[in-house]
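User: My instructor asked us to take a sequence, write out its structure as tokens, and then describe one feature of it. I'm not sure where to start. Here is the sequence I was given:
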Amino acid sequence: MLYKSKSLAFGILIFLYFLHNCNGQGQTLSSSFSKVAGDVQDRCRAIGECVKQNGAKVVDKTVTISKASLHHGATALNSSIKFSKESLNKIPVHSISDIITKAKCVIPKNADNILRAALLQQCISPSLGFGNESRCFNELGCFPMGYPWTSNLRPFPQPMKPEEINVQLYLYTREQNTPYDVKLWPSISIEKSDFNPNRDYTVFIIHGFNSDGGNTWMSDLKDAYLKQRDANVFLVDWGQGSKQFNYLQVASNTRVVAAELIRFGKYIIDDYQLNPLNVHLMGHSLGAHISSYFAKGIPGFGRLTAFDPAQPGFEGCPKEVRLDKSDANFVDVIHTSCRPTVPLLGFGLIAPVGHVDIYMNGGIIQPGCTVPPIAEVKLTSISDLAVIPADVLGNWVACSHGRSFSYFTESLNDNCTFWAQKIKALTAITNVVSIGQLQPLLIKIDKCKFNECVPLGLNTDQYPGRGMFSAGTAFFEPYCKSNLETDRFMRNEFRSLKEKSLL
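Assistant: Let's start with the prediction itself. The structure tokens for your sequence are:
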């Protein structure tokens, strides 16, 4: 019986790992652009307006999201999806094919009607370019839309214009507590700022989906970092491109954000002789993939810390389009919501992609977080994300997804260390079968071996452990659980290692 249970669990684990892959290539249709049929265009716009109005009703922003309101939101969303499907079914198939051909839209093969409607709306808009053609912007380069950037499981539209995304950079140092607004256009300037390329660390903190630079967690992390290290800290705000439209559009916008950062990064390296090894990138959700693109554009960065990197459109994809341990000298990843997005509404990458991947409480769902309304929403494919407003989806996934940066920030502020222990195969299987809920009970962190444990936080890269790890937390703030015996053992071993290296 035990053997059968383990076999089933292992099968589930393999299923989760390979559930989302981007091997399928999107079908590209092109011809000369001409005027879109008015009737079909009007229908698409009407459907989009209906979805927008229904989506606005899903979340009441004046109250805390409760289980009851989540169920209400799921009902409203399903009504929107049903309306879209029923309305689109009234459009003759030949009309849809005609509009695709005329608009030269990137419509993945076998895309359903909801996805087609969303992409058609975006292709029709003169602001968003035309279909599968590479879109180019002065000094930022071109953004191709062929494989692997677009595929069956990566049905992203073209990115918005840089002026629409409106990337902003704000510099902070220990001596400069007020934000210095970096000038990015038409030419870059950090004159009269406290930027010093000789500081040991230059940090970029990048938010993700449905957020902006004014989010409290970013300022909290910045303050905690500066308390521990003398650094140049840049907060990256791309809120205008992350809070509008749907997830698919926002995910596409990450490429333009990264291009802006690459342009700025090359400037401070070339004009101020900043050493790339001193750069520490920190990104949450889609911000983790922005960090990846940033690092790919300027090889040789010292460290990249990813807070629960976004899953939809990235899981299983080639490393050219997602976070990977080859992006920087050291890449550490904190996983807090690695359930499959379809159908379980998880939002973080499932597979390990760093030198160190820490699965907090098993990584699947965090203690105290409400399970999203998966029974009511009934996602069937990534296509369904095209009709969910950004703020609605953001609220559904926020709890476990956001714990990633909360844990890291707490590791800097408190006199307590989150020790992560190397994961064994049986532990990983148990986490999948129990949806991670047994992890806080099973973890035996007091039996750490020096090469099999790492601390969560600024010093992760200084310890020799590499691979997949798991760490337990308390159910409520403060999340860190003290273990003085482990602290003493690990720090003594660390000191011994340092002393040997100096001999």
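For the description part of your assignment, you could build on this observation: The chain has a mean pLDDT of 77. Try explaining in your own words what that tells you about the chain.
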